[in-house]
Structure to design on (1448 residues):
């Protein structure tokens, strides 16, 4: 126990903390500028000087740790004099432009000068000048105002790990010289904005439009972009969002955000938003009233159901909609329309992977707190770059690496390039071989734990792949593979981070088995990367062809019976169709009606042309969305929905943490669940929810997993797996899991051919970012990423325009050259209207997972001559 | 950007240290020796080679006053004017360089022959005033002998 | 006194390892390797050796801290940054007696159980770099460095690392940052380098001269060593003397030799029979002294009693012709240029002092400027992150305290100006 006295107040402390912290505990505020709670102590500004008895010099409270018996004074004459002196020094070069500065009103320096008021005007010589810089998208820098506290630099280096900012030069000629037009690897997370105490780094989004005192209300919510579910606060004026800010220390993101979360909210206010229901007449979508639209949908659905049967109808749900929306959606499909044909793009990888792992290890095995990553003793990442798919989760990997935790990555991952102990980049589509060789190596190093002998037997039967073989097939040196094996083999509680790329393969199922074996051997914790904010919610709410809410298989009688009893309706005992099966079935005229909620199917499913053809054949296509998407264009009825910031409800993140959205502004659409409830009523089934809270309480009764859950739990922030209910099954067993063949072909893609793959850029978020002007200002143009050697061979230079042609289509894109990519694959993002990768990608049905295998689309790349004309 | 020789040398330097960034200063020296200055491209290439972020390389290279960020003349005069040299007449030498060669601090003669950088102490105070021309020390400078010395550098 | 640190430097081949051996070099190693590492540290403790880099910290104590830390590997870094203006004492060792330093480093490496040593050499000494590299190679070839020193299975690797022109990198934590390839800004202490230094591992940073004393202690024993010079900080000391003396240069004298002896007995007094006006005793960052203080013994204990510091023992002598206001201005330009920019008072305040001095020196200063200068210096002193800014402020204060008239002579009083204008 340590006792310190600050300003006469005695405080007892468990362990030594800085004087600053101790004072804070005692309720005493010591002014600081360079200190920030999210950063390590720096001691540069010298504003926090305090007097400590028995020490001749003043000491900085931010760096000095308390010792037992220490007596500290924070407001003596000597201290106040020193503070004044420091402020006067700071004003030597700081312009007095508060009237023009957007920071005024929330500027730490301004506040301090007002409080301690240094003598002014004694410095006679001119101030340092530096023009305001607009070199960067989104961010404006005014380095005249910089006080060199280095908070931004430390944030960027130590926390974000982008290392895009540095102080250049030295002495009073020092400048913070960041970003510069993307040249410095800036990730535009804006976390530097959070920590800049003055107006030196500001957002361009609200330049001269934002004044802290004009904010009318602040609404706490979670981000709408990815499965991490960062907490953020929307600041609102009138009916528009002025700014999205993280609150230091708040939420699982603890004050951090990525570029999308911080800047991308502007899609909510986009002029492209739908504002009225539309009904197709004579091949044209016309405005209609809500009741017309509801009646139209109800009638058509009724007829189709009567004529072709329930299973001629299919529904696609969305990971961008809330739990409440998705719960009501599946209920509508099952109870009102009588079909299990419910799926979403979560069915491509996330849901099947979870299902497979849960089948072996028990339900909830992928529900791990994100902070476990930085606290594990090793990390293995495969199938996607966490720093771009789930940026704030990616920071955990970086933090771990900075602490010295070994990180092994498999596959091309730009954002972890500087943060991996070994980066294995296997030749295109050869991960299966690599995984098998890692497993073979590990089996020699690590004994089985004996917890699950049936699974151990399967693992033992897996076809071994020796390092030499893998070297030859994957193009990775034996040395590197051995290094990875050695490093993995000593980990005791590693985190295994898995992205969707590894599953959307012909060998996806085999890869799952290999990964499960690896996880079993290493006793690893699983993290599934999740692109959508409520992908887990889709699964948990039962928006799957084979699962009821709470992850109960529809095929198991007792679960289905409970569900049927609850609603007094019978539902099919067989699984419904997966999304890809629905598309196929629509093509084959077997599905007649499709109800799509919040998903741009045309854009987000491979082989655009095929999907369009399928949807065009439908008798009825209903689309609920916030934008006029390509899918909506094909619809017979379009219903405008509310966007994330306009509604109440909840999301479940990839940790299986349920969090509440906050309604910040009013929208012109209708809640997805409400529209469905209206149609349901017309079809003779009453859904009389007053608000989303009603839905959650019903859901909590239907889903045994979510027993007794309420909004209050979520608001308290600790509504996390395993909730208060009953998981389906703890512990391991492999009964009922469809196991892939343990003998598999070792694929050798032809090195001469060029294949296409999907790029997951940091600056976009699926199709949603298409309507964010802010995100487009960072990354305005679609592109294709091409390996340096290949580009050289084809005489393509960075920025050249090329055509990519496959048997599904052809697109024109500008080339981005990259030396780390394997030579025979090019990557195209799926974030730009009409230029998404799925326009040219074909797929085959993975017969086990029923999801699209997206490997092996061959492409021909040609440089476009006279490319300038294109732009 | 970097010559093959430079890459080999930098890789050799790397083996002297326990982590790559420690070789940053020596690596920048290699490049500066080769090109006479640190061009942005060369700096970037060093960063790539050592896996040090570009911004960090920029921050580091501009911290140290002996790294040059613009092209230099064929010969670099580094003349000390710190106190010991100053009281022994270093400031007059600066004037001479100006009158004789038209050379001002932080500049290069128009024929590209000399560049001049004013130095803080170069550790020759006992034989002040002193200068370095490229890597050669010259001390006990006078208004007469400085020109004589410089004339040997063409 | 018999020379040790500078022994053999007159020999034109002094950097040749055989020459060094022929005058008794590399004997201390054999002696040291017979001892247990902890015995060497005890010996150094008993010798009373205090660091020659400026702060005068007891070397044996520093070593024992690092030795006690269980983390591995450990590092020994030689501070050869010698940036303090007026200082050129390490240069003769580096350029003329490199094996003495190398021998000292090997012994300290063994004592600390550190297998890696780096000599952080200032960029301004290009010749020393080549000489050191060559000497290291020679020592390697002779089996004094490498995997198996003198066949005893002891390992020590030594490299030269060149700085690039930053005075602050002489400060030990900034030196470590710089060695790690970063901007050379000082670190927060604690943790101290002895526990978390280079790459966060236990690290000892010692000045060139300090390390060069180690073989001597091994050779003559702690007992005899502790009898040389001042009792509280014994040993031979290198004084670099520059400015207006007849014979400037580096002198190896017993610690505690008085300034008067240094200037008059050893350096032949003031040149051209001029009068002594002032002395800076320990390099530019130590307070300037007036002639009445020159009987002070030059050591770590006595100098502070006379209002200055031993610093690096770099004596700059000014005769009556010198304009001390200009000297002060030049010194301030130096500090401004070398401020690392991390902390506010030094980064902003030193430049301000320079600006005031500049206007005083160019005749546009006014009467209040001297007071302002004092006030600004007060707002710096004791408030900076590292001693650099403190040094700058105390230099200004010492100049004004003893030589105020030197500044006043540049300032024409407002009243006088009017008279002039009227005339
Ligand atoms: C601003 C500043 C500059 C310094 N420069 C040097 C230097 O050039 N050489 C040196 O040996 N020590 C220098 N020091 C002292 C070092 O920090 C450190 O105390 C010394 O290297 C320790 O070695 P020693 O114990 O052998 O003296 C400097 C300290 C400060 C604060
Ligand atoms: S006093 Fe401050 S600014 Fe000056 S060198 Fe030290 S840390 Fe840097
Ligand atoms: S002051 Fe010029 S060399 Fe020292």
């Amino acid at each position: 126990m340590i006792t310190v006295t600050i300003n006469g107040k005695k405080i007892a402390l468990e362990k030594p903390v800085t004087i600053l912290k101790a004072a804070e505990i005692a309720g005493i505020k010591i002014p600081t500028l360079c200190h920030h709670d999210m950063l390590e102590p720096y001691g540069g500004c010298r504003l926090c000087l305090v007097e400590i008895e028995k020490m001749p010099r003043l000491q900085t409270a931010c760096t000095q740790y308390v010792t037992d018996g220490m007596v500290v004074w924070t407001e003596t004459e000597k201290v106040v004099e020193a503070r004044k002196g420091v402020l006067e020094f700071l004003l030597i070069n700081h312009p007095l432009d508060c009237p023009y500065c957007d920071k005024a009103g929330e500027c730490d320096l301004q506040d301090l000068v007002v409080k301690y008021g240094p003598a002014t005007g004694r410095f006679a010589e001119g101030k340092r000048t530096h023009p305001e810089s607009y070199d960067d998208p989104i961010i404006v820098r005014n380095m005249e105002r910089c006080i060199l506290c280095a908070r931004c630099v430390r944030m960027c280096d130590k926390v974000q790990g982008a290392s895009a900012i540095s102080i250049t030069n030295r002495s009073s000629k020092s400048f913070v010289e960041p970003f510069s037009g993307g040249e410095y690897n800036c990730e535009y997370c804006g976390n530097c904005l959070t920590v800049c105490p003055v107006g030196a780094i500001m957002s361009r989004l609200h330049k001269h439009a934002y004044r802290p005192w004009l904010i009318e209300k602040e609404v706490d919510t979670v981000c709408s972009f990815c499965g991490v579910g960062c907490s953020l606060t929307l600041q609102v004026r009138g009916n528009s969002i002025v700014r999205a800010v993280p609150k230091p220390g708040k939420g699982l993101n603890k004050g951090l955000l990525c570029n999308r979360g911080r800047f991308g909210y502007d899609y909510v206010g986009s002029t492209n938003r739908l504002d009225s229901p539309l009904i197709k007449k004579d091949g044209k979508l016309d405005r209609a009233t809500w009741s017309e639209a509801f009646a139209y949908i109800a009638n058509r659905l009724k007829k189709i159901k009567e004529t072709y049967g329930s299973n001629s109808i299919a529904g696609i749900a969305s990971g961008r909609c809330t739990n409440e929306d998705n719960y009501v959606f599946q209920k509508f499909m099952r109870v009102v329309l009588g079909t299990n044909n419910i799926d979403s793009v979560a069915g491509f990888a996330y849901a099947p992977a979870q299902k497979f792992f849960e089948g072996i290890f028990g339900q909830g095995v992928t529900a791990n707190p994100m902070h476990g990553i930085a606290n594990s003793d090793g990390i293995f990442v495969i199938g996607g770059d966490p720093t771009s798919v789930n940026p704030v989760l990616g920071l955990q990997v970086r933090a771990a690496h900075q602490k010295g935790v070994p990180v092994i990555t498999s596959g091309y991952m730009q954002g972890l390039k500087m943060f991996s102990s070994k980066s294995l980049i296997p030749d295109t589509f050869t991960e299966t071989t690599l995984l098998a060789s890692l497993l073979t190596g590990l089996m020699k190093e690590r004994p089985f734990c004996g917890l699950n002998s049936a699974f151990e037997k399967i693992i033992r039967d897996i076809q071994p792949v020796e390092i030499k073989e893998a070297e030859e097939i994957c193009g990775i040196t034996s040395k590197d593979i051995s290094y990875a094996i050695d490093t993995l083999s000593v980990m005791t509680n590693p985190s295994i981070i898995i992205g969707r790329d590894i599953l959307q393969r012909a060998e996806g199922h085999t890869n799952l088995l290999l990964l499960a074996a690896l996880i079993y051997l290493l006793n690893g914790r699983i993290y599934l990367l999740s692109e959508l904010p409520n992908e887990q919610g889709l699964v948990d709410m039962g928006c799957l062809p084979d699962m009821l809410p709470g992850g109960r298989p529809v095929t198991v009688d007792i679960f289905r019976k409970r569900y049927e009893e609850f609603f007094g309706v019978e539902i099919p005992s067989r699984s419904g169709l997966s999304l890809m099966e629905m598309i196929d079935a629509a093509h084959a005229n077997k599905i007649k009606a499709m109800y799509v909620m919040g998903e741009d199917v045309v854009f987000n499913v491979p082989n655009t042309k095929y999907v369009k053809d399928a949807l065009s054949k439908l008798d009825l296509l209903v689309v609920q969305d916030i934008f006029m998407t390509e899918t909506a264009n094909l619809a017979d009825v379009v219903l405008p929905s509310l966007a994330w910031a306009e509604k109440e409800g909840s999301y479940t993140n990839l940790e299986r943490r349920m969090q509440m959205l906050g309604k910040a502004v009013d929208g012109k659409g209708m809640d997805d669940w409400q529209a469905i409830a209206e149609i349901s009523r017309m079809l003779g089934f009453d859904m009389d929810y007053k608000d989303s809270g009603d839905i959650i309480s019903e859901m909590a009764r239907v889903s045994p997993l979510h027993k007794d859950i309420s909004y209050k739990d979520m608001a308290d922030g600790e509504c996390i797996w395993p909730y208060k209910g009953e998981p389906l099954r703890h512990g391991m067993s492999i009964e009922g899991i469809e196991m892939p063949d343990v003998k598999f072909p070792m694929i050798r893609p032809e090195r001469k051919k060029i294949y296409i793959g999907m790029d997951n850029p940091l600056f976009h978020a699926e199709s949603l970012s298409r309507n964010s002007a802010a995100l487009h200002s960072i990354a305005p143009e679609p592109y294709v990423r091409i390996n340096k050697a290949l580009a050289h061979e084809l005489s393509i230079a960075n920025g050249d325009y090329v055509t990519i042609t496959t048997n599904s289509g052809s697109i024109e894109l500008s080339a981005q050259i990259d030396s780390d990519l394997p030579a025979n694959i090019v990557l195209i993002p799926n974030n730009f209207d009409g230029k998404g990768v799925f326009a040219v990608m074909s797929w085959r049905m993975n017969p086990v997972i029923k999801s699209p295998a997206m490997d092996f689309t061959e492409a021909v790349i040609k440089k476009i001559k006279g490319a300038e004309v294109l732009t | 950007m970097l010559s093959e020789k430079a890459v080999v040398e930098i890789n050799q330097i790397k083996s002297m240290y326990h982590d790559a960034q420690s070789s940053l200063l020596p690596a920048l020296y290699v490049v500066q020796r080769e090109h006479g200055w640190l061009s942005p491209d060369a700096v970037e290439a060093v960063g790539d080679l050592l896996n040090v972020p570009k911004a960090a390389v920029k921050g580091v290279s501009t911290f140290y006053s002996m790294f040059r960020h613009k092209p230099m003349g064929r010969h670099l005069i580094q003349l000390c004017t710190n106190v010991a040299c100053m009281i022994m007449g270093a400031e007059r030498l600066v004037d001479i360089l100006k009158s004789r060669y038209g050379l001002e601090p932080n500049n290069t003669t128009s024929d590209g022959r000399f560049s001049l950088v004013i130095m803080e102490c170069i550790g020759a105070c006992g034989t002040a005033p002193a200068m370095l021309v490229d890597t050669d020390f010259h001390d006990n400078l006078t208004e007469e002998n400085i020109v004589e010395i410089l004339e040997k550098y063409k | 006194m018999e020379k040790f640190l500078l022994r053999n430097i007159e020999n034109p081949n002094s950097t040749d390892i055989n020459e060094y051996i022929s005058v008794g070099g590399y004997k201390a190693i054999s002696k040291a390797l017979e001892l247990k590492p902890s015995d060497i540290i005890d010996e150094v403790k008993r010798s009373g050796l205090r660091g020659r880099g400026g702060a005068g910290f007891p070397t044996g104590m520093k070593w024992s801290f690092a030795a006690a830390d269980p983390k591995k590997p450990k590092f020994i870094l030689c501070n050869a940054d010698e940036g303090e203006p007026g200082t050129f004492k390490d240069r003769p060792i580096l350029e003329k007696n490199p094996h003495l330093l190398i021998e000292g480093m090997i012994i300290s490496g063994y004592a600390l159980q550190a297998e890696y040593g780096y000599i952080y050499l200032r960029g301004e000494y290009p010749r020393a770099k080549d000489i050191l590299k060559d000497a290291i190679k020679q020592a390697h070839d002779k089996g004094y460095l490498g995997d198996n020193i003198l066949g005893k299975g002891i390992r020590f690797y030594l490299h030269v690392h060149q700085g690039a022109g930053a005075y602050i990198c002489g400060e030990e934590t900034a030196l470590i940052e710089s060695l790690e390839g970063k901007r050379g800004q000082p670190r927060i202490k604690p943790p101290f380098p002895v526990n978390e230094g280079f790459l966060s591992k236990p690290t000892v940073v010692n000045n060139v001269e300090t390390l060069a004393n180690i073989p001597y202690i091994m050779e003559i024993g702690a007992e005899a060593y502790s009898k040389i010079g001042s009792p509280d900080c014994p040993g031979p000391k290198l004084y670099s003397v520059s400015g207006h003396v007849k014979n400037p240069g580096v002198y190896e004298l017993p610690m505690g030799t008085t300034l008067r002896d240094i200037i008059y007995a050893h350096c032949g007094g003031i040149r051209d029979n001029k009068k002594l006006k002032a002395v800076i005793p320990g390099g530019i960052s130590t307070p300037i002294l007036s002639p009445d203080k020159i009987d002070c013994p030059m050591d770590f204990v006595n100098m502070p009693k006379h209002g200055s510091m031993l610093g690096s023992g770099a004596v700059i002598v000014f005769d009556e012709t010198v304009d001390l206001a200009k000297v002060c201005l030049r010194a301030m330009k130096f500090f401004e240029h070398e401020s690392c920019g991390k902390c506010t008072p030094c980064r902003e305040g030193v430049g301000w002092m320079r600006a005031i001095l500049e206007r005083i020196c160019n005749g546009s200063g006014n009467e209040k400027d001297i007071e302002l200068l004092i006030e600004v210096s007060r707002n710096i002193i004791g408030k900076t992150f590292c001693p650099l800014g403190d040094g700058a402020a105390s230099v200004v204060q010492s100049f004004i305290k003893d030589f105020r008239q030197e500044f006043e002579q540049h300032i024409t009083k407002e009243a006088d100006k009017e008279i002039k204008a009227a005339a």
Remarks:
- Chain A touches chain C at residues 41-47, 49, 56-58, 63, 81-82, 85-86, 88-90, 92-93, 122-125, 147-148, 150, 166-167, 169-174 (CB under 8 Å).
- The pocket of iron/sulfur cluster (ligand 2) is lined by residues C 168, 186, 339-343, 346-347, 384-386, 388-389 (CB under 6 Å).
- The longest helix of chain A spans residues 290-308.
- Confidence is low (pLDDT under 50) at residues 867-871 of chain A.
